[in-house]
Amino acid sequence: MNNAVAGFSKLSKEEKINWIATNYFTNSVDTVAIIKQYWNSDVKLQQLHDEFIENTISNFYLPMGIAPNFLINGTYYTVPMVIEESSVVAAAAKSAKFWSTRGGFKATVLNTEKIGQVHFLYIGESAKLQLFFENVKENLLASTESITKNMQKRGGGIRSLELRDKTAELENYYQLHVTFDTKDSMGANFINSCLEQLASALKQEAQDYAGFTLEEKEISIVMSILSNYVPNCIVRAEVSCKVEELVEKKIDNPQEFAEKFVQAVRIAEIEPFRAVTHNKGIMNGIDSVVLATGNDFRAIEAGVHAYASRNGSYSSLSHAKIEDGVFTFWMEIPLALGTVGGLTTLHPLVKIALEILGKPTAAELMQVVAVTGLAQNFAALRSLTTTGIQEGHMKMHLNNILNQYQATSEERKAIAAYFVNETVSHATVVALIENLRK
Hints:
Blueprint: H1 13-24, H2 28-37, H3 43-50, E1 64-72, E2 75-82, H4 88-100, E3 106-109, E4 114-121, H5 126-142, H6 145-153, E5 157-165, E6 173-181, H7 188-208, H8 214-217, E7 220-227, E8 234-242, H9 254-270, H10 272-292, H11 297-308, E9 318-323, E10 326-334, H12 348-356, H13 362-384, H14 389-404, H15 409-418, H16 426-437
Antiparallel strand pairs: 1-2, 3-8, 4-6, 4-7, 5-6, 8-10, 9-10
Helix pairs in contact: 1-2, 4-13, 5-7, 9-10, 10-11, 10-13, 13-14
């Protein structure tokens, strides 16, 4: 079947839905009904969502949950989390409560530098290009003043501008490497606007430069774009307590637990196959808060995983040690976040999430997000090194299985009673449902 279509973007929303239903589904009436049942009844609110992206046909919902009792730098936070995976919110809340009685989390923003680059080709002597750059650098920066003046009033703007010679890696390839401080905004549009202006000014300055030959004047701009790798936009999160204070219901031998925990982290530090899953657990916490606050989780993911590979192999983002009878668990992670601009001022639930967090600055949000990731990692490692990961996860997953099979309230009660002292598995749940229905 050929489902190519011309002018799809010009179709009305109804026409788009009808085209999808007719071309891809046998029962087009039911398909249309399912798509439309997720529309918001508030027409203005639905229009707002429709205009976030292109070719919108419906809304795709994810659960928004709450993890309370996060004690961070002496202040309690209630953390909104948007995620579909069972047990993530529960695990974060459990870790938050655990550490709230042991001094809480400490978080520090180490730097907030963001990066953008103008990538260009220059045919000529590198030394001549460097001399040209030194002569026109101030002109390049001055050309961006109309863009940067408001950011400068808030204490941000361009922090540095340098020329980088990359010809050893790629013939004739150079960069303008620019660092920024965008204060409480993530700053993608601001950075990209500055970079495009710098690129335009660079070309013009080259044309006017008397020291260049005609060939050297023809600088070719390849692209101008921010980088989502921000190794100098770093936040540190940590927890620590005396080893004996780790004791709880499932940790009756805190010294043994601490040693096993540290060993588990060290395995993730040297074994990439483990490190990927280890860091994925951290990102369960981080992504969920990033989503709830209207930030770009794909950018965060890309930057974080590049950072995890910065020493030549993929490694754990978190670290742990026992020193002088004190257990310490910490993480340093790059997070370029914003609390103004973009969805933060448009999406109603993002506004609520930021209100719940106390209207944080970008730096405060960095701390909350990093702490949530560390809490998630602690919960996962505590389970892995004690009862195993599946016990808690499968109990949370039980509801999903029961919903899948449309279990009645009586069936749910009987199945819940069975699993009070048994390990949940998908096969066992299905078998129980089938037996009950016989």
